């Protein structure tokens, strides 16, 4: 890259910084903060000085208020969700036809592999964990009666490690046009060596093709030919791991030491229990990922032999990665289970059935999750006796998940169900989670896994859990708590349209992938026109078209959601202290008690509701004809 290119890149970066600064300074008054905003659930003053905040970008760069940091996590996660979603849409349009017809002019198979890698890492590390941190940061202190997090500044630092982490992970896409020999990583999200150790910007091994088919030794790696985009991605992943670990320590300390005097362990809400268990999993698993990434970086750049055949071997990396990787699945799914367990009873008109069993099953999942990692390695040649042990534990961990599912269904049984948008997403979660769980039980059985391993069946199963369950729980939480965060109510018609498009799109896309797996379609392939079995290309093409149509429906649904959130945040009707009529069912909650105290103090302090947006109470608008602008009552 010449001097002119460097100057152009510097100029563009400067313009971007100025534009972001100008936009941020225009949003001084996104939300109204009162002396209660940083207080406890009872409205007490705190020692953190949240009652007066600077305006504009300075406020967001310097805040240590757990609610502000929760909003920052949420905005960050939505941006990552958009990036990962657009990447997978390009992949799906390519897969709708057997040959390389869509991406052929912009990098072909190499660009497809870059999108594949970016999509997986973005959705898991930049969307999944941060969006859950958004809920936990905002609501855990409110639910347990704490003034703030135990370490507010560490809480802020944990978030601010994430944006540079995302920039590093995506850096290969930004730098490729300006630098020769740099491209986005093509290692897939698992980053298996030897490919991850020796990959060049062209997606090839850093050696001549005469070595193809043989395990790469560290002495054979030409480090001068390595793709720096992969190194940047590994460094970015390391930052996200440090961020998650700092947050986990903070949540554990907060729940143990900052609970209100009336919040004993027997009174701790189910969402806080799941966050506590998640934090323990992060504390024990993320350091393993960090260690594996450091060793991978050393192998790539300093010719060490951790994952070379004469050193630890490539299987060592798989053990380290999956010892983190399978607890990571429960790191992502336990808080959504907590959201469902917390929100679903509110719209069933009764308390959560078997609360203690739900807590015990949460703790059981936390313990068992560290004993199942090698079921990802059944096809790697490990000892059959070890495979049998991991198969048994992998089957056993389905039991506590089933306990939760039966408890959710029993909670709704003979209840006073209100089909609000949050409740629809809770029910959708249960249905999708059953499909994702049952397909996972099949993969836990060694004979079945050996047949279906590395096919689209695995992709369909995994996405039924990630998109079909975790994302549904996230949306349920967003709609349920939107009145507290924004002070307004969303449009119920758009909310239900979002649910149905997401439900239909999810099942079209991922059930088609399960059928592709039964047909033998391998995952991570950009084309499939080389298949020679008669009729199978047509079978694959039909199912890929169905999956692509489903993905497009999913995209439409998420655009509806974004529009609903933005428009309702700016113009939705102002809500009253009990927008969901929780007290009528005898199911009050601490965060809505805090919300009611905040509204009362705002009015006592001189604040008034807007004249054109009358306050609502109990979910009923003053103008009963304005049906679409209020809640789902």
From TrEMBL:
Pfam families given in the database record: COX1 (PF00115)
Domain Cytochrome oxidase subunit I profile: 60-581
Keyword entries, A-Z: Electron transport, Heme, Iron, Membrane, Metal-binding, Respiratory chain, Transmembrane, Transmembrane helix, Transport
Segments of this protein annotated with the region Disordered: 602-633
SUPFAM superfamilies on file: Cytochrome c oxidase subunit I-like
Membrane topology category: Multi-pass membrane protein
Transmembrane segments: 69-90, 124-144, 156-179, 232-256, 276-298, 329-345, 357-376, 388-410, 422-444, 464-485, 497-519, 539-563
Listed Acidic residues bias regions: 608-633
Record's GO cellular component terms: membrane
PROSITE patterns, alphabetized: COX1, COX1_CUB
Location in or out of the cell: Membrane
Superkingdom of source: Archaea
Family: Belongs to the heme-copper respiratory oxidase family.
Protein name in the entry: Cbb3-type cytochrome c oxidase subunit I
Source species: Halorubellus litoreus
Lineage: Archaea, Methanobacteriati, Methanobacteriota, Stenosarchaea group, Halobacteria
